[in-house]
Amino acid sequence: MNYFNTMERENTYRHILKWGDKREEEVGYHMADLIKAKFGLTDNDFREKYLPGLETVTLEKPSLLKPRQLEFLSDVCGSENILTDDLSRARYSCGKFYGELLDLRLKHVPDPPDAVVSPRSHDEVVKIIGFCNEEKIAIIPAGGQSSVTGALRAPHGGIALDLTKYLNRILKINSVNKTVTVEAGIFGPALEEELNRHGYSCGHFPQSFEYSTVGGWISARGAGQASTGYGKIEDMVVALKAVTPAGVIETRDFPRTAQGWDIFRLFAGAEGTLGVLTEATLHIFNHAPLNTTSAAFIFRSFGQAVEAMRTVMQSEYGKPHLFRISDPSETDVAFTTSGFDGTLADKVLQMLGFRRGNCCLMFVAVEGEKAYARFVLKKIKKTARAGKGMFIGSGPVRKWLAQRYSSAYMRDPLMDLGIMTDTLETAVTWENLMQVWQAAHDYVNRRPKAFLMIHISHVYENGANLYFTFLSPMERGNEQQDFIQFHRGLVDTIVENGGSISHHHGVGRALAPWMEGHLGKNSIDLMQAVKRHLDPNNIMNPGGTLGLK
Amino acid sequence: MNYFNTMERENTYRHILKWGDKREEEVGYHMADLIKAKFGLTDNDFREKYLPGLETVTLEKPSLLKPRQLEFLSDVCGSENILTDDLSRARYSCGKFYGELLDLRLKHVPDPPDAVVSPRSHDEVVKIIGFCNEEKIAIIPAGGQSSVTGALRAPHGGIALDLTKYLNRILKINSVNKTVTVEAGIFGPALEEELNRHGYSCGHFPQSFEYSTVGGWISARGAGQASTGYGKIEDMVVALKAVTPAGVIETRDFPRTAQGWDIFRLFAGAEGTLGVLTEATLHIFNHAPLNTTSAAFIFRSFGQAVEAMRTVMQSEYGKPHLFRISDPSETDVAFTTSGFDGTLADKVLQMLGFRRGNCCLMFVAVEGEKAYARFVLKKIKKTARAGKGMFIGSGPVRKWLAQRYSSAYMRDPLMDLGIMTDTLETAVTWENLMQVWQAAHDYVNRRPKAFLMIHISHVYENGANLYFTFLSPMERGNEQQDFIQFHRGLVDTIVENGGSISHHHGVGRALAPWMEGHLGKNSIDLMQAVKRHLDPNNIMNPGGTLGLK
Lengths: 549, 549
Hints:
- The structure is a homodimer.
- Chain A is globular and about 75 Å long.
- In chain A, the strands form four sheets. In chain A, strands 12, 13, 14, 15, 16, 17, 18 and 19 form an eight-stranded antiparallel sheet that branches.
- The model of chain A has no long low-confidence stretch (mean pLDDT 96).
- Among the domains of chain A are: 110 residues, Uridine Diphospho-n-acetylenolpyruvylglucosamine Reductase, domain 2; 117 residues, Uridine Diphospho-n-acetylenolpyruvylglucosamine Reductase, domain 3; 116 residues, Vanillyl-alcohol Oxidase, Chain A, domain 3.
- By secondary structure, chain A is α+β, with helices and mostly antiparallel strands.
- Chain A is built from 20 helices and 19 strands.
- At the A-B interface, β9, β11, α14, β16 and β19 of A face β9, β11, α14, β16 and β19 of B.
């Protein structure tokens, strides 16, 4: 199953749509078998890539910036930091939302910005925003372009403001306050490596870690894989600096205050609609990987696993940092694709009543001080055991951690096979969790040849997230509409059964239509009022992000 | 030192100004000695109360509500729930800010509302706000009236909206989600007692606990004595319901989301300027008092104690729930007033280098699961020892907990002695903490016969609060101006040296003048825009609260 190197040329749609380091991923042997069985594919389907996007990128929409405007921008940032070529504009026209990847494969770039501009400093950002506000030029703040919600499109054209080229420095590691101050365009690995050298960790490891920035984390309110212990990004933010059309807002690094409501929180989740984040101060954590303890468990049912998880979170003996449950369908895939089927261990598990299609894996890792990590893990083991979970060693967790960012790479080869695959996620109280889980499965099961895996990966005292990964063969020739309809039905199902629109992906434009119904008109009107004040000319990521006008 | 029962009549200024349960408190024997020594008072000063406020309350300002308006209110709430008598209006004209208590003693009620109205339901609140918005009648939401920032005055008259009479029920204890939903007017003890019966605790125990409400806790962004473990009230809020002139805002109880910024957070710290909170859902905690472990330590200097405290908070082995340091001056008073001076233990401590004027007490209590509480306490003991602290048993902490709400009762007898006494508090990063602490002492020391005690009582990874209690004889005949000037200088000192305006008292009108300089004009303008949207006619707690127009 090795064909040809599709990555030769850098000016193709494929170059833009590929996740991450551009290495070509392929569907593994066991996974390929599973897909063939589930969706009735044959070896033939594996021979040629479907809609590979190998054509050279060309845009229909010309850049509409006037020579005078480009001149101003060049004067501010240097002409080498203003890009208006088709490839650059296409690259900054989207994130990694399935609908966008499909567009690229279909040679469709509906919403390119007019230019990509890379300011060299906070002050240059201030000048650009001031100018664009006067000229009514849209600004889309740009980080790692890993958004999966259509938040980065430029339906009004304008400028993609790239913060990663220059505004990517660590300004201060403060070991007294245990905080770091960074520029917003810094990528995860650059931050983490420097923190590690000082004995710290950022504690925030989203699936997109390798290709996302601090500014993006905050703007979309992301969550890392260890968020159960370290919190979501909004829990880590201590202070930030944002440039808005109404001026610079800079908050301070007090641990907590009671001086009105927190201003910085308006920018956590604003998705670029209020201004451009240029700096942030974050909590950091001790980097002591050798202290980490971990354990995997297997439960006979999803309900039992969830009940044990809830008990852990409500017992007040400390919390795990990584805490996951794969539901029966995800557990089944994990077993099958790891070559577990039919092994002796497999047979023993079945004999013990851990039946495939019912049984669930739970992964736990506790970090922090050495004795603490051991203490909490021991407690969790006891709770899991009391909840009828069986400890199956720490190996599976260590193995999972070793490939923790890999699943993001899997979408491209699946789409190459003509398989529609996307993820959705929700936050839900314990009370509603089983209902949302069941309803989502019921919904997906109604589509012939569709498959849904669900896991829990961010856990709280009062509830958790549910993370949905669905796969189904594309409806060839009607890929986009088919996806939109199927996606809409799944979101409806989640929301109607008591889930939130999003737990950590954000809203963007893909989920914007649900906002008013979900939050209520008065809340949306309030959000709109905040935007109107900070961005009276609606230049900040305009065109529907967050359901705002 | 027993004179006469000043509490006979209920219609006096004294009846309004007295803290709490109206029992007469007196300055204890050791404290009296200390005060005599510090401020040069004699037994003579103890014979008669200064400005006791025993006169009958009479207001100069008549109620300005029109008969038509009163009629509407009566129709909505029932006439028995509309009070316009002088005593009621005076009672709801202020909180427990020192300047207000002084006013009452001086028979001065500058800002009474026109009426006190007690709605019987959320729907009645909606009707009242709608009517008042049309009629441009000010509304001041009223809970336990324990504000110490002048947040409850009614400079524009209008209605004090009392939520405690009817809107005081527990709506649901949700043991699956581990949350409670209450009406905003419920007092601390009523909430805690009912939760205890179900095996839970609210975890929020401010000094004002006995006489403050959930709505007030959230509106002023309060912190309880165990906030280091349980968080501030804004960390406990899961969802809330607020009535604003622009409509009802109701948020949902998802554990976390990424659907724009959190709307509910705008009401945490809004101090009634945006609307009236009618309901809130809060996290609750396991009630297991027998699990609590505690320890007291003594350190040779404030700096050493702070350093040990910081190490505890940054070690990632779990956190204490109660965590306090009394600075050398507060420690000195604690020793003296408890009759410790000259005891054998006192001599031993001095011999060991714990010198009075330098040495500091640290109090720790850890709650939660039994083994967890023991584990964390053991770790803290080790850290304290390594930081040169000496463990002095758990008795002092247990003793402190037994009288945890008593210091609020002490202000009245001190003012009866003609002593000006008020508290201020700030949040500060570890980096700036010693500087703020030193500067505050230097400032107070410049006033002859003034005395400042400072403690830390709410602790975070990146910093802590500082809590200031100052005492000095009133400048008789010029009490109010003298206080205002002295207070202003202390706030200036705190802010100039890197402290926040407030950590948990809130801003009210007393600290409003610092808001714009402290937060920056752009942040205040943003807050003002939020207010303008929700309260276009400026009826919600108008007249300067939070520095808003």
